[in-house]
Write a structure and sequence with these properties.
It is a single chain. The chain is an alpha/beta fold and about 220 residues long. The chain has a single domain, classed as Rossmann fold (3-Layer(aba) Sandwich), CATH 3.40.50.1000. The protein is about 50% helix and about 20% strand. It has 9 helices and 7 strands. The protein has a 7-stranded mixed beta sheet with strand order 4-3-2-1-5-6-7, sandwiched between helices. The radius of gyration is 17 Å and the shape is globular. The two termini are about 30 Å apart. About 35% of the residues are buried.
Amino acid sequence: MNLALFDLDHTLLPIDSDHEWGEFLVRIGAVDAAEFTRRNDEFFAQYQAGTLDPVEYLEFSLGTLAQFPRERLEALHKQFMAEVVLPAIRPEVVALLKQHQDAGDLLAIVTATNHFITKPIADALGVEHLLAAMPEYDAEGNVTGKLLGTPTLGAGKLTHTHAWLEKMGKELGQFERSYFYSDSHNDIPLLSVVTHPVATNPNTALSAHASLHGWPSLHLFND
């Protein structure tokens, strides 16, 4: 068994699911449009630049989720999946995942986006294991707005991957082949420790780093 890890946004999806979730809430009038769009765009620009404070962003993101009761959130997410996510899933991505599944590899999505947003997406892609930022829930199942544990961004992805494998009685080094597919230079810490890093739809910074280190590039889409 080999290990295949995947970033989500702009890697398996040609969109940023976290940013698009915010745009969706604005579009349907669920949040204050002007203020939310300003902050959402500001955080997205920081992420692209590699200057994002993950805790600050997650407190903003999870705080937005906390404004809605669980039943309302689930209904909103079903609508979000139907209108935004499912139309964005490309056959090239499905084929890549199937290639690893057919080979008997252990697959996981490792994403900085929170678990509430990404769990239905991972399910739609047929990937059982998901490492994502975990929201805190109250006794009634509502999001409190707090983050559990550390963010899954940058070096945090490496930390969470090691912890997940340890729970399964495994170690990264025991896999003959370990893959990580990502579009972002933010993921260089995890890309640097697998045997087969793949710069997937890479941004400019990651493309340069991959070229310097002889990593292959994969272009699933150019969006």
